[in-house]
Design a protein that fits this description.
There is one protein chain. The protein is an alpha/beta fold. The protein folds into two domains: about 5-65, no CATH class; about 75-240, Rossmann fold. It has eight helices and eleven strands. The strands form three sheets. It has a six-stranded parallel sheet with strand order 6-5-4-9-10-11, sandwiched between helices. A three-stranded antiparallel sheet has the order 1-2-3, with no helix packed on it. β7 (about 150-155) and β8 form a beta hairpin. α5 runs parallel beside α6 (about 200-210). It is globular, with a radius of gyration of 21 Å. The N and C termini lie far apart (about 55 Å).
Length: about 250
């Protein structure tokens, strides 16, 4: 039996810890307000201690609108290499992109993660970009950065017998899939927005949808978004439709 959720009175002003996540100009359907809701956990929960009442009260803060809908908890995960390739032909700004995703989501993004490979050591320009990604608004988009080292792959061409080394990313795809499953099992999100195009994430997406009933939105480009990912998505956000709103400043 699922926990019962009862609404308690709420105020128009959000608690400071939560209100800081709401960007200026955010518009939600109806009249938004922050509510203190009370969740009742049925008897038998492992969190109940002997001698306590059959129902344990837990107060949580959630975003609700005027008709009483509870906003979903959303996490955004970014495949940095995939988005970099899109940006080579259509430069974009991560802060503007996050603002557009929040607008479409009709609720704040709880956490955002950027995963990519980098040379060792990273260049000064790369370090500056990663620091900006981590910065909170209005300076930056406030995205957590997880970096993996590039690996040298030795290649021997069978046709011309030429030998050369090529840098390839290592561990990023596994890191993204692991992060998706880890956050889902912890109940860290209700909705995942995944900015990636690789069909290798199909198993992870299928797992969190079938076993944890998570909602998945895919954000990608028309020419590079895997049909496998599209088939599992609850919604596809096309990057081309977000331009010019997310264009990088000239």
């Amino acid at each position: 039996m699922a926990g019962l959720v009862l609404a308690a009175p709420w105020s128009e002003r959000p608690p400071a810890a939560l209100g800081s996540e709401v960007p200026a100009g955010l518009r939600l359907p109806g009249r938004p307000s922050w509510g203190a809701w009370t969740r009742l956990t049925p008897a038998g929960s492992s969190r109940l201690r002997p001698g306590r009442s059959r129902l344990q009260l837990q107060t949580i803060f959630v975003l609700v609108n005027s008709i009483g809908e509870v906003a979903v908890k959303t996490v955004w995960i970014i495949d940095g290499a995939y988005m970099f390739n899109h940006g080579r032909s259509q430069p974009f700004d991560y802060l503007k992109l996050k603002e557009e995703l929040i607008r479409l989501n009709e609720a704040p993004i709880h956490d955002a993660y950027y995963l990519n490979s980098t040379r060792d050591p990273s260049s000064e320009a790369q370090n500056s970009f990663y620091s900006w990604l981590k910065s909170a608004p209005p300076r930056g988009p406030k995205i957590r950065v997880q970096l993996y080292r590039l690996k040298d792959l030795h290649i021997n061409c069978p046709k011309c017998c030429t030998e050369f080394n090529r840098e390839v990313q290592k561990g990023v795809d596994v890191g993204i899939a692991t992060l998706i499953i880890k956050l889902a099992t912890k109940g860290a999100f209700d909705r995942l927005i995944l900015s990636a195009g690789d069909g290798d994430f199909e198993d992870a997406i299928s797992y969190i949808k079938s076993d944890f009933n998570k909602e998945v939105w895919i954000c990608g480009a028309h020419d590079t978004l895997s049909c496998d990912l599209q088939s599992y998505s609850d919604k596809v956000i096309w990057l081309e439709d977000l331009h010019p709103a997310i264009n990088k400043p000239a």
